[in-house]
Amino acid sequence: MKITILTIFPEMFESVLNASILGRAREQGLLDVRCVDIRPFSDRKHKNTDDYPFGGGAGMVMLAQPIMDAMASVTGEGFHGKRIYLGPRGATLTTAKARQLAQEDELVLLCGHYEGVDQRALDLCIDEEISIGDYILTGGELAAMVLTDCVARFIPGVLGSAESPEEESFSDGLLEYPQYTRPRELGGLEVPEVLLSGDHAKIKAWRRAESLRATKRFRPDLLEKADLTDKERRMLEEM
Ligand code: 4H7
Fold first, then answer.
1. Are 191 and 184 in contact (CB under 8 A)?
2. Are strands 189-190 and 185-186 parallel, antiparallel or unpaired?
3. Which of 53, 104, 131, 188 is 20 to 30 A from 30 in CA distance terms?
4. What are 88-118's pLDDT values in tens digits?
5. What average pLDDT does range 162-181 have in this prediction?
């Protein structure tokens, strides 16, 4: 999959895109992410990318022209993909949305700044607005990184073959069970005995019960939509 990020701060992406699982996915050619600097596309003498808002008010608005030209430069005739604007008006990013976006050949992510972008650039060049949650950021860059990371996990091969994005929090509607590694005792706390037993059926059942317990404790709202058996519903009542 190819992801092109239009931004006036391309340097913000360097470490995030090169580290860890995203870095490995790019090396393996599973993910092709590039940042395109919007500023050189500006027709203005000093390469400005913003101007005062018509109607007055505080702050600046990003110019449509450099954004539209940057977008045109990365979406030629053969473009088959989605052009996404990261902003607080969008529908909130979910696992289901990330899974769906991972099916696309190509995404272009537009990062807004200042008080936002001239509406006409959005009307003419954007297919969809997505928010990463109900809070305000200083720019769309962090949101673009979150979306890139979240979508990349659903590209086949990006996670090791042992890890599946379908076996994690939210994919079955539940939170994850607690994890332990060495040492067996720490600060007076022992690793739960069942995890040392080698009894895989018992371990599986314990983990499922702990997932239910964690979800009931931290995100009881998730239980309404979770796919549970009658037995599991009864277990929850008793917890
Ligand atoms: C697009 C439009 C994303 C981008 C407006 C971006 C939150 C999210 C931004 C704005 C973002 C999210 C302009 C809104 C300045 C706030 C004071 C950049 N914030 N801004 N306003 N939740 N900010 O995904």
1. yes
2. antiparallel
3. 131
4. 999 999 999 999 999 999 999 999 998 999 9
5. 82
Quick one: which atom of ligand 1 is closest to the CA of 93?
Answer: 24
CA distance 166 to 175: 12
**Does the predicted model carry a pTM greater than 0.85?**
yes
pLDDT at 239 over 80: yes
- Residue 193, helix vs strand vs coil: helix
Residues 167, 40: contact at Cβ < 8 Å?
no
Residue 4 CB-density burial (10 A; 0-12 exposed, 13-18 middle, 19+ buried): buried
Alpha-helix residue ranges (DSSP H) falling in 28-140: 64-74, 95-101, 119-125
Using the structure block, give the residue that is written with the tokens 């360097």: 14
Residue 42 Cα, ligand 1 centroid: separation in angstroms?
22
The token pair at 133 is 């949650």
For ligand 1, is residue 93 a contact (CB within 6 Å)? no
